[in-house]
Amino acid sequence: MLERINNLLDSPRLNANNWEINFLGSIKEQAKKRDLTHPQIKYLERIEEKNTKEVHKEMDRWLDEWDSERQEIARVVSLYYRNEGFYFSSLTSKILDQSYVPTASEYAKLCENKYASKIREAHFKEEKFPVNSVVQVRKVCSANKHYREENGGYTRLNDAFAIVIETNALPVRRAALGAKVYKILPFGSNRPYYVSESDLKKARKIKK
Question: Which residues contact 107 (CB under 8 A, 6 or more apart)?
Fold first, then answer.
């Protein structure tokens, strides 16, 4: 048993998180004195399953396929989950703060779930209103709900005419259609505001 634990700890390619590494160190000391419990052995086996030659070969293949597109997808989705503040906090922190390359399994769980798919679609699809487009804010506008802090508090933008000055201006915050974020400059205003694509419509007739 001690040899199995040492083989993992001495491996230069140990695939384990910090908790698992600490667990291995703990049971190593225990194994010197007495037998491991059945739950401890089962968890040791789980770590061993993550460190087989086949798994390492698959990890190498994944790293060879890792590219700038997947990296950007992971970044965009991580920004969404960081704003949500509930899920994948440890993983998203590593991706955003440490340039961490997630495993294939981590990437699938983070970036290929139904919510992430909507975030990806909103961010990467072609903008409906390009920069310099003249738009009108819809009567029901979500700016005060989703971008109140960036907009400097409550503001009335309903029915305002504006020009688009930036698309993908903030990370997508809603797993919904029309969630791409725009920065717009309302006519007559001396400051820009953030709105969702779903808040905008084409300006057909500007009132004078």
Answer: 70, 74
Integer-rounded Cα Rg, in Å, for the chain is 24
Contact, 180 vs 125, CB < 8 A? Answer: yes
Q: CA 110, CA 95: separation in Å to the nearest integer?
A: 11
Give which of 64, 28, 29 is closest to 44, Cα–Cα.
Answer: 28
Which SS3 state, helix, strand or coil, does residue 47 take?
helix
pTM > 0.70: yes or no: yes
DSSP, residue by residue, 130-169: -TT-EEEE-SS--HHHHSTTTTTS----TT-EEEEEEES-
Q: Of 102, 120, 125, which Cα lies nearest the Cα of 174?
A: 120
Question: Contact 32/2 with Cβ under 8 angstroms?
Answer: yes
Reduce the DSSP state of residue 177 to 3 states and report it: coil
Structure tokens at 89: 């906090």
Rounded distance, CA 193 to CA 200, Å?
Answer: 12
Secondary structure of 55-74 in the HEC alphabet? HHHHHHHHHHHCCHHHHHHH
At 182 the three-state DSSP class reads strand
Model confidence pLDDT, tens digit, residues 135-192:
999 998 888 888 999 999 888 899 999 999 999 999 999 999 999 999 999 999 999 9
